[in-house]
Amino acid sequence: REILKCGRFDLKLDGLPLVMGILNVTPDSFSDGGRYQGLEFALSRAEEMIADGVDMIDVGGESTRPGSPSVPALEELQRVMPALYALRELGKPLSVDTCKPEVMREAILAGADMINDINAFRAPGALEAVIDSDCGLCVMHMQGTPQHMQEQPVYQDVVREVIEFLRERVDTMVAAGIERARICVDPGFGFGKTIEHNYALLRHLGQIRQELALPVLAGLSRKSMIGAVIGKPVEQRLAGSLAGALASVAHGARIVRVHDVAETVDALKVWRAATAD
Ligand SMILES: Nc1nc2[nH]c(SCC(=O)O)nc2c(=O)[nH]1
């Protein structure tokens, strides 16, 4: 299948892999943490990513770093909704990174084209929040919760268990009446995985895609799985992140979720030129 249905947009998946730009609207993601500053920042950052060639923008109002506490729904709405209203006229598919049904519902009403749920729509009411829309849905694997997931990740067979988790979630969503054409899957790099688990999943992205027959979205950008290999802090992980994005695509990912849009777009163009049959 070459199309991912995302609200106002049908994303073509048979061309250049798609670049999803990360736009955090959490207080710790812009300078003074002021709400208005945040909106101005969000708009200028979005325009910059669009100028850099981004294919879609992922707006997140809750930090899900390991150990991070959950944010109340109202607070998350206060962060995300102004950004959505400001960005929706920019003509690019907008994704909202949230686990909360209340946020999903409002985001869809405000024109979000995809809901990106690191919790795979498991919260009570999450399926009901998205079922009567045509927005794209990213279903991601996570073991445990952001608060505790990195304390001691353990699997018998991480690839098998992630595939089975994603299969169960997708089957449940399809049984609830959600069109498969709206769904993409994501192994959730860094969400309850050791470095070794992350690289086993990366090496087996093709198997995930094959067995689920769904597009794969991969998010490695600047993560500890990159940092651990190069021994560099988060602000020095561009080269490693580009290599990670290309590795994901080489293993079959069709969407990469990144911070560094211009660089990733260039890297994918060269990769495509080098591998186009
Ligand atoms: N679908 C999807 N959504 C995400 N949201 C984050 S937040 C943590 C960070 O960017 O470091 N990661 C991911 C990811 O890997 N996949």
Description:
The protein contains ten helices and ten strands. With 277 residues, the chain is an alpha/beta fold. The strands form two sheets. The chain has an eight-stranded parallel β-sheet. A two-stranded antiparallel sheet has the order 1-2. The longest helix has 18 residues, at 158-175. Bound molecules: the ligand Nc1nc2[nH]c(SCC(=O)O)nc2c(=O)[nH]1. Ligand 7PJ binds at residues 22, 64, 97, 116, 118, 138, 140, 186, 188-189, 217, 219, 223, 257.
Biggest sheet: strands side by side, in what order?
8-7-6-5-4-3-10-9
Bound molecules: the ligand Nc1nc2[nH]c(SCC(=O)O)nc2c(=O)[nH]1
How many helix segments?
A: 10
Distance between the termini: 19 Å
**Main pleated-sheet profile:** 8 strands, parallel
The secondary structure category is alpha/beta
What kind of oligomer do you see? Answer: single chain
Radius of gyration (CA) equals: 17 Å
Portion in helices: 40-55%
**What is the number of beta strands?**
10
User: Unreliable stretches, pLDDT < 50, 5 or more residues?
Assistant: none
Mean pLDDT: 95
Features:
277 residues, binds the ligand Nc1nc2[nH]c(SCC(=O)O)nc2c(=O)[nH]1, eight-stranded parallel β-sheet, alpha/beta, two-stranded antiparallel sheet
